[in-house]
């Protein structure tokens, strides 16, 4: 059985002080939870503060929102995998729809980042998803296939198993509108089918696929109870410690 993974993507929010207060409030609510992998993904400026605040909370890992594929060099404004490892980062989000649409990241660029992350022993959370126009035109399967095959090109089975996929329908991010559990399950099952074609049955069955798109305490349990949905990549609702704790609890196998 795949262990659920729930990640908080804070995006460009949270000062160091706010991040420390979040962790202080959040920890007591999920202190006894060990059957769900929990990841907090703050902005770069708050990574060290979050790690410090977490202390010995072994059931929570820290992630980063992006990285560059080179290890070092004259790349002003970028951050590398070794620099993230130095901050005790375990996961890194790559190919988020906002990186793709606002900053022009391509599948090839995402693939280079994924390879660099895996080489540095970071676990990538690779985002894929279609726009509303692509969904309405019936092109969502084609889009997901292109993104998956491009972003994960050349990965060996073990590397794929160390990678988390996040399905985030772009039309459901920050809009308050989310895919129905049935739509989400259909997309997740399709993603697993493509992974099966890219590798083998065992690998595809082991890869964890999160849903991301207006996940809230009210819909989290039904979404994550679907057979191919292995957790959630949470945006807005993760900025409130109580809400995020409720989503983590909704992921538990009961």
What does this protein look like?
The chain is 44% helix and 15% strand. The protein has helices spanning 16-30, 47-54, 81-85, 97-103, 107-119, 132-136, 140-151, 157-161, 181-198, 201-206, 217-224, 241-250; strands spanning 4-9, 36-41, 60-64, 91-94, 123-128, 164-167, 208-211, 231-234. The chain contains 12 helices and 8 strands. It has a single domain (4-250), classed as TIM Barrel (Alpha-Beta Barrel), CATH 3.20.20.70. It is an alpha/beta fold and 254 residues long. The mean pLDDT is 95. The two termini are 13 Å apart.
Strand arrangement in the largest pleated sheet: 7-6-5-4-3-2-1-8
Q: State the share of residues found in helices, binned by percent.
A: 40-55%
Relevant CATH superfamily: Aldolase class I
Major sheet characteristics: 8 strands, parallel
CATH topology: TIM Barrel
Architecture, CATH level 2? Alpha-Beta Barrel
Count of β-strands: 8
Text of the CATH class: Alpha Beta
Number of domains: 1
Rg of Cα set = 17 Å
In one word, what is the shape? Answer: globular
Distance between the termini: 13 Å
Give the uncertain stretches in residue-range form: none
Derived from helix and strand composition plus strand pairing, the structural class reads: alpha/beta
